[in-house]
Amino acid sequence: MGAHETTGIIKRRSCEDFRAGVTLCNLLDLETQGPSYTWHGTRGGWIVMSRLDRTFCNDAFLEHWSQVSSIYLPRLSSDHHLLLLSSSMNTSTSPRPFRFQGMWLLHSNFKDFVRNVWCRPCVSSPMSILTVKLKDLKRELKVWNWQVFGELKLNISKASEKVLSIQERLTN
């Protein structure tokens, strides 16, 4: 057998061993967003591309972590894509807590919006004015955020699709 044939047998055996290990450990290959091929190189003057980089987990992981996503990040200095795994144990059905968004500060109308809400007349005792104003501001900021920035998850999803499209164009 020539060196090329031996290398092919060794690689095939390694792949079979890897698949057997994945099966033995009951691992699941998570669907990952991003380009179809995560590695590229040249072999014998030919460009070779393959999906080598993967994210695996088992059922116990998925039971513990309710929300799991995986995405390939752009290649930087390696011939492989980085993998980003995101997971959350948040299974609560209660309303999400109010969170201040840093992007609000960059919006040209934000300060005027807050000033207008804050300066509204408030019929309340002096001790509860601050509480009432903060509750009003919170409610109004949620509406304003939706009107100005839209659904953030949808915007992030669209941006991720654009990144994927750019990555695929760069790969071709």
From TrEMBL:
One of its GO terms (molecular function) is endonuclease activity. Keywords: Endonuclease, Exonuclease, Hydrolase, Nuclease. This is Endonuclease/exonuclease/phosphatase. It comes from Parasponia andersonii (Sponia andersonii).
